[in-house]
Amino acid sequence: MPTRLPPLATLQAFEAAVRHQSYTRAAQELALTHGAISHHVSALEERLGLRLFERDGNRMVPTEHGRLLVVKVRQALGLLERGFARAGRDEHVSLAVSVLPALASRWLAPRLPNFAEQHPDIDLCLDVRSGVADLAAGDADAAIRYGPGGWPDVQQVRLMGDELLPVCAPHYRGGRLPASVAELGDCTLLRNPWVPWEPWLHAAGAEWREPKRGPVCTDSAVLLDMAATGLGVALARRVFDDGDLRSGRLVRVLDISVPDPSSYFFVWRADHPQIDAIHLLRDWLLEQVLPTT
Amino acid sequence: MPTRLPPLATLQAFEAAVRHQSYTRAAQELALTHGAISHHVSALEERLGLRLFERDGNRMVPTEHGRLLVVKVRQALGLLERGFARAGRDEHVSLAVSVLPALASRWLAPRLPNFAEQHPDIDLCLDVRSGVADLAAGDADAAIRYGPGGWPDVQQVRLMGDELLPVCAPHYRGGRLPASVAELGDCTLLRNPWVPWEPWLHAAGAEWREPKRGPVCTDSAVLLDMAATGLGVALARRVFDDGDLRSGRLVRVLDISVPDPSSYFFVWRADHPQIDAIHLLRDWLLEQVLPTT
DNA sequence: CGCCGGTTGTGAGCCGAATTCACAACCAAG
DNA sequence: CTTGGTTGTGAATTCGGCTCACAACCGGCG
């Protein structure tokens, strides 16, 4: 399996040849003879089983295959050149990212090692807060926000939507878990003011409304902890309760779920001085989220 | 100039060594001896003047520099491997992009050759229309929209904001161009229903309001053509009149400009089957726009 | 047409670099 | 301390890239 890749010199020769549309000029640039370029290109063509150039008079014009290939080659060479030019200088970048507590602990934290590995030159500083960080004021360099989207003055992409479903501790009420929506009315509904029960109750066909009293917590993770102690039934998002469901700390109640009308968004400002790092973070987040869509 | 890059075999050896944290295992993977790996790594270290590995017992653990470097190397190698694996198969992708007429002709069209060169595997199909394409209905794969942002159910990034400033033909009114806001009141104001004069008039301190009569055109490019014929004064966006101003076909009137409250946005759907190509298009658009911010 | 300055294709041979080999040094664990 | 593992290193070998020289080809021009 070793080196099924052509040598670098070959790639550089190919790239220069495409750029100049001429072997001799490419050879001049690389301080070689035209013969070297010719050998390189024919070696490449033989290896791929494809013609990469066609003669047009005394110009060498790349074929379709050649044009497709040279893009990747150029990107790779550029990456290497930049990588080696910068090697030695440590150009660490620090990004302050505002994140909601629940998402930070249950979703982001376990994935951070992966980020650190893929982007060792970016130090993330998680600014965990319940409120909304004002990016314009410099509260943070970027943020993950929860809501309907459409914030003014910032760039934004939706990271993930979710489903809402009720969960509680398996030993809640001595194990006599509610089996119907009506029974659920006798339970303590744990509430998060940002995640109302209304849409779910409506979808489940409940004839009663969300109670105005009882335990309230503004943080979803803590709300789940409360549910796990047997305090009541919480309306949970999949992202957060996945681990708890698997470990048996929590169980689903009834099998009705509704799409969460709110989503998580990554937001940033286009004029940020370290926009490159922010884009890398954005793309990484989108990758993490890809399976979920 | 030539090959200031280390040979590919060296990079592969380095990468494998980082991955295995062991020269001998890296050597096994590449079907080489440990000596080869050792030589490769020390050649790299000497070339860079940096230590890339440190011994930890009988493990070789990469230094900070090593970890930073290996990221670029991995990306580059990955790019090449994928590039060469796919070479030959033509995996062309076609994207239908809905664009407003003015933007398509004055801004996007002249940049398309650049896109074609950078992404020869993506065929753009410009769906030029004045209305809003419904991405969910499959009207297009992505779109560039003009407005305040915050559309539901789509991903979006702001491409560019702009300034609004009045322009007219240099020979308008026989060359007696309006020199004050009051004088502008005697001129014919060409109107685009999507780009009201109000904010500009307000900023300029006009004591009169936008006329309800006179020429109207829903397309900014055509509106500028109308102004160029001497029909009246148009409220133009920089993106569009730049060329006209340089060529002298149009001149600025008064030197007051206001930020355009609307912007151009690139919008797409995260669940699109060709999301990779869409991301490439998005990133390319953002690059085009970078100087403008 | 036929020459000329330009290009690319090709095979032989040279030279340098990548790899191996063999041995020394070192480490961790028994 | 020995044993089985690792890495460092210099010399020998092998392999591949490059040049060189010549043939083939193209476009233009007299």
Sum up the structure in keywords.
homodimer; 293 residues; alpha/beta; Arc Repressor Mutant, subunit A; D-Maltodextrin-Binding Protein, domain 2; five-stranded mixed sheet; 42% helix; DNA-binding; LysR_HTH_N (chains A, B); WH_DNA-bd_sf (chains A, B); DNA-binding transcription factor activity (chains A, B)
Give a written overview of the molecule.
The structure is a homodimer of 293-residue chains. Chain A has 293 residues and is α/β, with parallel strands linked by helices. The first copy, chain A, folds into three domains: 8-86, Arc Repressor Mutant, subunit A (Orthogonal Bundle); 93-161 and 262-292, Periplasmic binding protein-like II (D-Maltodextrin-Binding Protein, domain 2, 3-Layer(aba) Sandwich); 163-259, 3-Layer(aba) Sandwich (D-Maltodextrin-Binding Protein, domain 2), CATH 3.40.190.290. Chain A has helices spanning 8-20, 23-30, 34-48, 64-86, 101-118, 181-184, 198-204, 220-228, 238-247, 275-289; strands at residues 53-56, 59-62, 93-99, 122-128, 142-147, 155-160, 163-168, 189-190, 233-237, 251-252, 258-259, 263-268. In chain A, the strands form three sheets. Chain A has a five-stranded mixed β-sheet with strand order 4-3-5-12-6. In chain A, helix 5 links the parallel strand 3 (93-99) and strand 4 (122-128). The longest helix of chain A is centred in the N-terminal third of the chain and has 23 residues, at 64-86. At the A-B interface, helix 1, helix 4 and strand 6 of A face helix 1, helix 4 and strand 6 of B. The structure holds a DNA duplex (30 and 30 nucleotides).
